[in-house]
Amino acid sequence: MRDVAVIGVGCTEFGEHWGTSFRDLFVKAGALALEDAGLSGENLDALYVGNMSAGRFVEQEHIGALIADYAGLATNHVPSTRVEAACASGGLAFRQAVIAVASGMEDIVVAAGVEKMTDVGTGASVDMLASAADREWEGFAGATFPGLYAMIATDYMHRYPLTREQLAQVAVKNHENGAKNPIAQFRNRITVDTVLNSSLVADPLRLFDCSPITDGAAAVVVVPLERAREFTDSPVRVLASAQASDTIALHDRRDISTLDASVAAGKRAFAQAGLTHKDIDMLEVHDCFTIAEICAIEDLGFCKKGEAGRLTEEGVTALGGEIPVNTSGGLKACGHPVGATGIKQIYEIVNQLRGEAAGRQVDAEIGMAHNVGGTGATVVVHILGA
Amino acid sequence: MSVSRFWRKIPQRYNLIGTQCTSCGRYFFPPRSLCPDCRRSGKIVDHKFNGEGTVVTYTVIRSASDQFEHTTPYVLAIVELDEGPRLTTQVACLPEEAKIGMRVRSVFRRIAADGESGTIHYGTKFVPVE
Question: For an interface test with A, which of B16, B62, B100 has the most A Cβ atoms less than 10 Å from its Cβ?
């Protein structure tokens, strides 16, 4: 197995891109990543694209081929593969690219993620996102995606001392970070009252506990570490790439409030990298809902179950805190184009480790990305090091 | 949901028929045709659940997909059946009545419909036990 490094990253602005198509979003992110890596594209060996549901969002399948074509790679016959794991599609595409390079099969590989969500109405989006859970036995009963995370929140708040205000502080903190991120969908600051006064979506979760519907694309270039210096003076090493599965339905989990796949993927990642929690300087976690960030911090082992709310309230996870979480603004403020989110997490960590995160820069040499599919049926964890 | 997709699970959806692995005794609802514990050595048979259980967690859905939007707000819960398995279901009660630990029993109800002229989906909901 070869060591792998990231040599270039690119990301579109996240938001409602009424004037930009699915393919244009992808091409823009890909071009930014190649430009950052100093590559023209003709020397690419392979492409892995994370995408959850182009079939339903834009009625287009065969995404790998479409993207290779519009990225100008089809006439070179560059292999292009779509990877799908609901909201973890991006993280999984990155992992596939890392595996391809680590194995020695391929040298210069692009991992990308793209989702175009605003071409359908909100009702249709809600229905599509519910297909990340069990359509036959959760969706059939009327479960929405926010509803499933709301049931995690109800269980969690029944068992642990998490206040409604602490939960709101996750969103407040992520908007604070998003305000400093030029690609973020929401660059406005909010208060605890903004969250508590927003409409209920699924009790106890309110509108401002939820990540938005977003269009966006992100791409990164990975190569063998031994070749990285050919392209850049500041390669970022992939120290671990781990993935874990759990039951598709929330009702079948061992513990409603613990994402066992996060626990498993986290442990595997630490073991691969030979690192411990105190080595990690920053985290990008999957905060599709505020409760998800609370669970992620705990399930990855950064504190005991029941403590993440208090740590958030004390500012431990803020930009200037001991362990900054979601410096990008997270899914909540940066936006959540589902297939692109996992790659955007890598984009953010690479920017931070290179010292190029401008107004939201933290002092970091090692970062961890945590990307969740569904309510935790797939979890992908990566550790990157400067 | 297409007609055939709904129709093929009518016994399960209407009458709470799941499965049991007779090798280890574990019950499954939703039904499974492979026991995760015994795998290929497990023998799976149908099992009709008695329909009583306890609310493990719940929420009140205020914003739903188009199919369910007209029924909001509704209580959605994870119910643990007395035989062990858990399922996701609506509880037909007022939002303020729902609580963790509440005893419930299954009832046959209309769940949703595929538009104005499509299939009406019936199935199981739960109601509080008096």
Answer: B62
Q: How far, in Å, CA of A330 to CA of A336, rounded?
A: 8
How far CA B85 is from CA of A142, A223, A360, A378, in Å, comes to 19, 47, 47, 22
Task: Tell me how far apart the alpha carbons of residues A297 and A291 are, in angstroms, rounded to a whole number.
Answer: 10
- Residue A127, chain B, CB below 8 Å: the answer is yes
Measure in Å the smallest separation between the Cα of B88 and chain A Cα atoms. 6
ipTM of the complex: 0.97
CB–CB contact A123 B89 (8 Å): no
CA distance A154 to B122: 27
Amino acid at B81: L
Q: What is the pTM of this model?
A: 0.98
Strand partners, A83: A50
Nearest residue of chain A to residue B81 (CA atoms): A251
Q: What is the pLDDT of residues A34-78, one digit of tens each?
A: 999 999 888 999 999 999 999 999 999 999 999 999 999 999 999
A152–B88 C-beta distance less than 8 A? no
Residue of A nearest to B2 (CA): A136
Report the alpha-carbon distance of residue A121 to residue B35 in Å, rounded. Answer: 40
Q: Which residues contact A140 (CB under 8 A, 6 or more apart)?
A: B1, B13, B111, B112, B121, B123
- CB neighbour class for A182 (10 Å; exposed up to 12, middle 13-18, buried from 19): exposed
3-state secondary structure of A383: strand
CB atoms closer than 10 angstroms to residue A221: 27
d(CA A361, CA B62): 38
Domains (ranges, CATH) in chain B?
3-128 (2.40.50.840)
Residues of chain A neighbouring B108 (CB-CB closer than 8 A) = none
Cα distances (Å, whole numbers) of residue A263 to A96, A267, A299, A349, A380: 21, 6, 5, 21, 11
- Asked if A141's CB is within 8 angstroms of B62's CB, the reply is no
Query: Which residue of chain A has the CA closest to B95?
Result: A203
Q: Does A147 touch chain B (CB under 8 A)?
A: yes
Q: Domains along chain A?
A: 4-121+214-236 (3.40.47.10), 126-211+237-385 (3.40.47.10)
Q: Say yes or no: A249 contacts chain B, CB-CB below 8 A.
A: yes
Give the gap in angstroms from C-alpha A147 to the nearest C-alpha of chain B.
Answer: 6
CB distance A299 to A262 below 8 Å: yes
**Residue range A301-321, pLDDT digits in tens:** 999 999 999 999 999 999 999
- A286 noted as active-site residue: no
